[in-house]
C-alpha cells in the first residue's frame, strides 16, 4: 500500500515543482504568478508530507484527492507557462483573462484543503485532533462520501473508543439509506469493521456487528461480506464472546441469511448450527439430555449405553399395527396424543423423558460396572465433565450472570437465525432436528417472550415445510413416539385453539406440513383447524383451508379418514359460506378443499344437507374460480361424484 501511494504521489509532486520553477521565470502577470507559486509551494509541502506518511494514508480518498490535485496542477502549469517571455509579438497575441488566475488560485486552495484533510483524517490516534475535522472541498458534490471516508479512516487508525464511535456512525448511515451501505462496502469499510468485531471492546464489537448486519441489504453485498471472512469472525464470537455481542452477531447472521440464502451452507461449515442450538437450549432444557447430538468425544461405554437404549426402544415397537401411516412403518408406533391434554403436558413429557433417560443410563451403567470393573465410575466422570462445559465455549456461570433481557434477546435471535438457516435446506433441518432444538422450540412456544415465540413458530414452520417434501427427514424428525415431536405438536395445537393471531398462521402451516404424519384416529388435530374456518381474518381462513387440504388431498394416504373427520367437525357448512361469500383468494382455497371432500366422501349426508352439489354447480359458472388449474381439474370430477351419489341436494345415499 505504501509503495502504491508513493507512486501515485510522484506525479503531483513533480508537477508542483515545475509550476514553481515556471512561476519564477514569468515575464508577464508576475504578481499573479507569484501568488500561484506561493500556493503551489504550500501544496507541494503537503504532498511531500503525505509521501512520508504513506503507510497511514487511507487508499480510497487518497486516490480520489490526488487524481483531482494532479489535474489542477496540470492546468496551473499550462497557465504559468503562458506567462514566460517568448518575444513581444507572442506576448501581444497571448491573451490571458484575469479571471483565469482567480479561478486557478481557488482550485489550488481547494487542493490544499483536500490534502490537508487527507492528512488529518489518516493520522494515527495520537496525532489526530479531537475536534471536528470538517469536510474537504472535494465533498461539495457528495458530502456523505467524505463522512464515510472519515469514519472508515478512524476504523483503520483510531483508538478502540474512537473506532467504536465510528462504527456507530456507520450504523446510522447504513440504517438510513441503502446507498450509503453500498458506499461503505465500496470504500473498504468491511475489513476494519470485522477487525473491530474481533478485537474491540464490548460496545465497539456490538456496533461493528450491527453495522455488518445492516450492510447486507442485497445478495451482492452479502456475498462481499462473506468473502471478507464474516463467517469465521462470527463463529469465533459465538464461541468466546460476551452474550450481548453474541446476540447482535446472531441477529446479523439472520439478516445475512435472509437476504442471501445461498450463504446458509457457508455458515454451517463454521458450526453455527451447534452454537445457535446451544444458546437456544441454555436455561431452556438440560444441557445434556437424550435429545443432544452425541459428541465425537463420547466414550465407547457411553456409545454402548446409547445403543442399548435405542435397541430397547426399537424392540418395544415391533409388532405394532401396519397400514395407517403414509410414511411406511411409522404407524407401527402408537400415537402419543390422547383426547384431553393440559396446557402443561409438554413439561410433563420433558420431565418424564429426562427421568427415564436417567434411569435407563443408571441401569446400563450398573451392568457395565459389574462386567467391567470401574467402567461405570469412569462413565459418570466423563458425563459430569461434559456437563460442566458449555456448547458455546463460554462458561455457564458467566452466561447465568447476564441480565434477563439479554438472555431473552439472545434466544429470540437464535430462533430467528435458525428460522432463516432452515428455510428450504434439508441437511440443515436434519442437523437442527437431531439436536435439542425441537424440544427447545416447544418450551419457548409456551414460556418465551412474544419475539421468542414468533421466531420459534417461524422456525418450526420452515422445518416442517422441508420435512413435508423430504420423507426421510419426516420419518426421522417427527416420529409419533418422539417426546420432542409430542411437545412441539402439543404447543402448536394449544396456540391454534387459543387463537393467538401473531402465531396462528405459522402454526397452521406447520400442522398442515405434518399432515402425513398423523394417524386416522388422531381426530383432535382436525377439529381446531375446522373451527378456524369461522374466524374473521381472511389470512386465517386461507391458511386453514390450505392446511386442511393437505389432510384431505389424495397425496395423503389417510385422506378418506381425514375427510370424514372434517365433515364430522362441521367443516362442510363453513366451506360453503366461504365459497359463496369469502374473499377471492379465500374462495379458491375453500373450493379446492370442498372438491377433495366431495371426491372422498360423495355419499355423505352432511354434504347433501349443506347442498354442496349446488355450490359446485354455481362455482363452475364463475369465471374467476375456474381459472385455477386445480379447480379446473377437480371441480368436474367432484360434481360427477356427487351427482352419482346424490340425486338431490337434500338427500344422500350411503
Task: Explain what this protein looks like in three dimensions.
This is Armadillo repeat only 2. Keywords: Coiled coil, Repeat. InterPro entries: Adaptor_Cbl_N_dom_sf (IPR036537), ARM-like (IPR011989), ARM-type_fold (IPR016024), Armadillo (IPR000225), DUF7792 (IPR056694). Pfam families: Arm, DUF7792. It is a single chain. The protein has 654 residues and is mainly alpha-helical. Helices cover 71% and strands 0% of the residues. Helix 22 packs antiparallel against helix 23 and helix 28 packs across helix 29. The longest helix has 28 residues. It is elongated. The N and C termini lie far apart (87 Å).
Summarize the structure.
This protein is an all-alpha fold and 654 residues long. It has 35 helices and no strands. It holds the Pfam family DUF7792.
Overview features:
71% helix; elongated; mainly alpha; 654 residues
List the helices and strands and how they pair.
Elements: H1 2-24, H2 30-52, H3 59-81, H4 88-93, H5 98-121, H6 143-157, H7 160-176, H8 178-186, H9 190-199, H10 202-215, H11 219-227, H12 230-240, H13 243-259, H14 264-268, H15 272-281, H16 300-316, H17 345-372, H18 375-387, H19 396-400, H20 404-422, H21 426-433, H22 437-447, H23 450-469, H24 471-477, H25 483-498, H26 501-513, H27 526-531, H28 538-552, H29 559-568, H30 571-581, H31 584-600, H32 605-609, H33 612-619, H34 623-626, H35 629-645
Helix pairs in contact: 1-2, 1-3, 2-5, 3-5, 6-7, 7-8, 7-10, 9-10, 9-12, 10-13, 13-20, 15-20, 16-17, 17-18, 17-25, 20-23, 22-23, 22-25, 23-24, 23-26, 25-26, 26-28, 28-29, 28-31, 30-31, 31-35, 33-35
